[in-house]
Amino acid sequence: MAIRMSNNVIVALNAVTLLLSVPVLAAGVWLRSRADGTGCDHFLSTPTVALGAALAAVSLAGLAGACCRATWLIWLYLLAMLALVAALLCFTAFAFAVTSRGAGAGGGGGDYSAWLRRHVEGSRSWAPVRSCLAVAGVCKRLEKDGGKSKKAAAGALGRGLSPVEFGCCRPPASCNFTYAGGGEWTRPAGRGPAPPADPDCARWDNDDDKLCYGCRSCKAGVEGELRRDWKRAAVINAVFLAFIVVVCALSCCAFRNSRRDNFAYHSSRGGWRRAGDA
């Protein structure tokens, strides 16, 4: 009976973990398929998908080991759980470090960590992100939304706009460009093509494939969106880590009790007892 109860505990815990792996996998797939600027943040969606797949695999191993009473599968399950706890701990600490405030970026950048700025603003890193922004049609959706277009044209402080929309789909307010409808903006009369106040003014282009995708403000917008997503992921991972630690601890206790009861059962059937039990 005790052996059966220990196995039932392991089965129940792994059934819950298996169910929880489904929304984790769904969240990773959703992040990968998002049709806005953050659809480019594959280094957030990929770990999420990997985490969901790992949880599902570990849970299935635990279920199979408990149902079939395969000791080697239970050992494999416990080792995998410990590795998962270590990986979650490292990822959560890294995510909090990435979302912490850094020394601040110059120009149009925000107060982001050095790692995040380096992995977004580098020429090799920014090229695929810029291409993704253009393909995703972030600014085309903004042009179709009349309310948002009016806010952008009025040079508002970003109310109603995402960081990516605010930084990539309109010239900086300091440029004093005039909204001409659609995605068109006109430069102020009597001023050169490169106003000294903000270099992004010279980078703006009315071409739908260019817009402000090369602006520092656009990079800052992507960094802001990524930091928001990473911060959410860090909080979720912290909660999930606590749950996994509890599951791992309970599974270890159940496995220890199962081995002890199994040893006592076979010892009693063999007609002998351990020394000191008499």
From TrEMBL:
Q: Where is the signal peptide?
A: 1-26
Instruction: Kindly list the residue ranges recorded as spanning the membrane.
Output: 50-68, 75-98, 234-255
The annotated topology with respect to the bilayer is: Multi-pass membrane protein
Q: What keywords are assigned to this protein? A: Membrane, Signal, Transmembrane, Transmembrane helix
Q: Please classify the protein's predominant subcellular localization into one broad category.
A: membrane
Name where it's found. Membrane
- GO terms classed as biological process: auxin-activated signaling pathway
Q: Supply the InterPro entries for this chain.
A: TET_plant, Tetraspanin/Peripherin
GO terms under cellular component:
membrane
Q: Which Pfam families match?
A: Tetraspanin
**Record flagged with keyword Ribonucleoprotein:** no
Q: Per the similarity annotation, which family is this?
A: Belongs to the tetraspanin (TM4SF) family.
Q: What is this protein called?
A: Tetraspanin
Q: What is the lineage of its organism?
A: Eukaryota, Viridiplantae, Streptophyta, Embryophyta, Tracheophyta
